[in-house]
Design a protein that fits this description.
Chain A is of the alpha/beta class and 370 residues long. Helices cover 46% and strands 14% of the residues of chain A. Chain A has one domain (43-364): Rossmann fold (3-Layer(aba) Sandwich), CATH 3.40.50. Chain A is built from 16 helices and 10 strands. In chain A, helix 2 (90-96) links the parallel strand 3 and strand 4 (101-106). The chains are: A alpha/beta (370), B mainly alpha (332).
């Protein structure tokens, strides 16, 4: 039986139908283009330091007795992806499971701040946020939840300050940057990042987006939009689509020196895996990381291949290490209909099951230490 | 073969090459123009220019090609032909068209490169200093053009591999049946991205991609240096020079302004007011980034004495800042 089983008549009818869909899509485009993004979950800004703004989300259910969770987002794009829509918000899903959630929003550097390095982000600003939560919530330790590059930051921070971390959750986090499937690493391997940064200062977000698009060009520039045109008359689906588009193109510039350091230390030297990374003069040794770790990655991730995340298993010394592969893509793990709830369930169950929570509660009494 | 169909096939192949190649994704070419226009009206035509419609145009172009190709081979609404065998043949025709396009591109590229040689060759006479400055820029431009053409040839090879893979897939009777034009187009997208993936994994591709980006950086540096020198010659002093003056002193290292842990109140879950602790009820996430920090207002050229502008230019060591970016050679 031939593979192509539609007729000439079907073809002409489909082309006519597509023209009609295109008209609907064009009217939706004019209707949605100026719609401001919705605020999914109520929150308040409780602390700022440098480029870090700490958001605290309002509880939506009785909170479980566990240390709060601090979500550490990547420097690429904005953290609104975790709370893009009430129906597709991982943060909301965590809140409804009784988890107390904080989130760091990294503001874009100005051109005078292009010399900001990774140490400023990790050892200074992330640390300040952790300290603030520990103090304001009167807990010894908190949980860290890192997203993508934010997961790498969280790993580094946990290695620097294991005494402040009850548990570490990494999601779609690159650890081994030299895996054979890492196409982004391959694209960047021969780019002179130092010259790029010296020429441009901060690296525009559009360029970073372009690099991500180049990993799967036709899916990103064609198939995705045709999928939307096919469902353009569905208002709910269109709302989600435009929210995602806004998030994708709302990409702040990256501090030049931070990018250079990241490219050198991680992409070129793979320093996290080799144990040669130093931040603020302190060596990052994952092998001596004593805290419980939950490592979640996406099966169909083309930006951070599963192998790059899975490498964490061989790097950490923690005896309490769990890894879970979810059937999703890099972004879908946070906004996909099923994957999002699955992710929240996995995190909530892992947090509830950790004995570290009990230990944390037990240690909560002698607060004088703080 | 109909000339109209060939022209349409050429246009479609070009569009595919542009999309499949990622040419517009390379920094220094036109990434911002391509993607920054999302949700924006084109001031010239008043129409939307967005990736949505580019995708739609490619899809429609593919459907129209198939319809026209069927018509060329006797298919009409009254006496439709069977599309199955036709699609494979059409894709092979497209492959030939892609190869012809590549030949034309190569010839045009070679001619342009030869033409640019006149700026690179040394000359004698009073125009020599100016010419030398031009030759640096032109040399950088040629290097970038050459790297771009090599990458473009790689992309053409990827397109050829993708079309070859596509033809094989549609003629393979063992796969899932394709019941619509959209299904057929999705098959094409899968084949193209798979062919692209195969190539981008190689170190050869990494080197070629790196060459394009690095040469774009070198071109930008050369162009900035040329502009700086030329502006200096005319004593032109712009806003960027003010920024450069500020940049000359390295920015102060970030200082922690948060209160030390010991100073932060511990006992209550309610945050008390502190120097850097803000509490805003029901605040919405920021939708707009704050404007770039400008330490001092932009200089008013009318209010700035001309002599002082020259003086400032000299103090800057003849370095100017183009746009919002640092000048070449400045240590950051």
């Amino acid at each position: 039986m031939p593979r192509i089983s539609f007729s000439f008549e079907d073809l002409t009818a489909e082309l006519d139908a597509f023209e009609k869909k295109l008209l609907v899509a064009a009217s939706q485009l004019s209707r949605w283009q100026d719609t401001p993004p919705a605020v999914a979950t109520p929150h308040e800004v409780v602390f700022t330091h440098g480029k870090a703004t700490l958001w605290h989300f309002h509880a939506l259910a009785n909170q479980v007795k566990s240390p709060p969770v601090l979500m550490v987002y990547s420097l690429v794009n904005r953290p609104t992806m975790a709370d893009i829509d009430p129906e597709r918000s991982v943060i909301r899903a965590l809140l409804t499971r009784g988890i107390d959630v904080y989130l760091i929003d990294w503001e874009a550097p100005t051109r005078f701040e292009r010399t900001r390095g990774l140490a400023t982000y990790i050892a200074d600003e992330l640390d300040s946020c952790v300290q603030f939560i520990r103090s304001s919530r009167a807990v010894d330790k908190i949980n860290l939840l890192g997203i993508c590059q934010g997961g790498t930051f969280s790993l580094c921070y946990s290695a620097l300050h294991p005494d402040k971390i009850a548990g570490l959750i990494t999601t779609v986090t690159p650890v081994d940057f030299h895996t054979s499937e890492d196409r982004l690493g391959n694209l960047l391997r021969h780019v002179d990042i130092s010259a790029l940064v010296e020429t441009c200062g901060n690296v525009p977000g559009e360029w970073l987006n372009a690099a991500f698009f180049a990993l799967k060009p036709l899916h990103v520039t064609h198939k995705k939009y045709l999928d939307w045109i096919a469902m353009a008359d569905d208002d709910a689906a269109t709302a989600i689509f435009f929210a995602m588009e806004r998030w994708i193109f709302d990409s702040p510039a990256l501090a030049g020196v931070a990018l250079k350091e990241f490219a050198r230390a991680f992409y070129r030297d793979n320093a996290l895996v080799h144990g040669t990374l130093q931040i603020s003069g302190q060596r990052i040794v994952l092998a001596s990381l004593p805290i419980p770790i939950l490592n979640i990655f996406a099966r169909d991730d083309h930006i951070v291949p599963p192998a790059a995340s899975r490498a964490l298993r061989h790097c950490v010394g923690s005896t309490d290490y769990t890894e879970i592969e979810l059937p999703s893509g890099h972004i879908g793990i946070y906004v996909g209909g099923k994957a999002r709830n699955l992710l929240a369930d996995v995190i909530a169950e892992w947090l509830a099951a950790r004995e570290v929570l009990k230990r944390s509660r037990a240690r909560k009494a002698p607060r004088a230490k703080l | 073969m109909s000339a109209t169909w060939e022209a349409a096939a050429k246009a479609w192949v070009d569009a595919c090459l542009g999309a499949c190649s990622g040419q517009s994704f390379v920094p220094g070419l036109n990434p911002v123009e391509t993607f920054g226009k999302l949700f924006k009206l084109d001031p010239d035509t008043g129409l939307f220019r967005s990736p949505h419609l580019d995708a739609a145009a490619t899809f429609k172009g593919f459907g129209n090609l198939l319809r026209d190709y069927s018509a060329l081979h006797g298919g009409t609404s009254e006496s439709p032909v069977e599309l199955g065998p036709l699609v494979g043949r059409m894709v092979r025709e497209l492959r030939l068209q892609a190869a012809r396009n590549q030949l034309v591109d190569t010839e045009q590229s070679a001619q342009l490169t030869r033409w640019m040689d006149i700026f690179v060759q040394p000359i004698l006479g009073p125009g020599r200093p100016t010419h030398q400055r031009w030759s640096v820029v032109t040399g950088a431009w040629q290097a970038h053009w050459s790297a771009t053409q090599i990458l473009r040839a790689t992309h053409a090879a990827i397109l050829d591999a993708a079309l070859c893979r596509f033809a094989t897939r549609v003629e393979d009777s063992t796969g899932e049946p394709i019941t619509s034009l959209r299904g057929l187009f999705d098959e094409w997208v899968n084949c193209a991205d798979a062919a692209y993936l195969d190539e981008t994994r190689t170190s050869r591709f990494a080197v070629r991609f790196g060459d394009v980006v690095n040469s774009a950086i070198a071109l930008r540096l050369a162009w900035t240096a040329w502009l700086t020198t030329t502006l200096n010659q005319f004593g032109v002093f712009d806003v960027g020079a003010k920024d450069s003056a500020t940049d000359a002193a390295p920015p102060a290292p970030p200082q922690s302004t948060a209160p030390p842990v010991a100073e932060v109140p511990v006992a209550s879950s309610t945050v008390t007011a502190g120097p850097k602790i803000r509490r805003k009820k029901n605040s919405a996430p920021k939708t707009r980034r704050p404007p770039p920090t400008r330490l001092t207002p932009a200089p008013n050229k009318r209010a700035t004495p001309r002599a002082s502008r020259f003086k400032a230019a000299r103090q800057l060591g003849n370095e100017f800042d183009i746009g919002n970016f640092p000048s070449p050679g400045r240590k950051s």
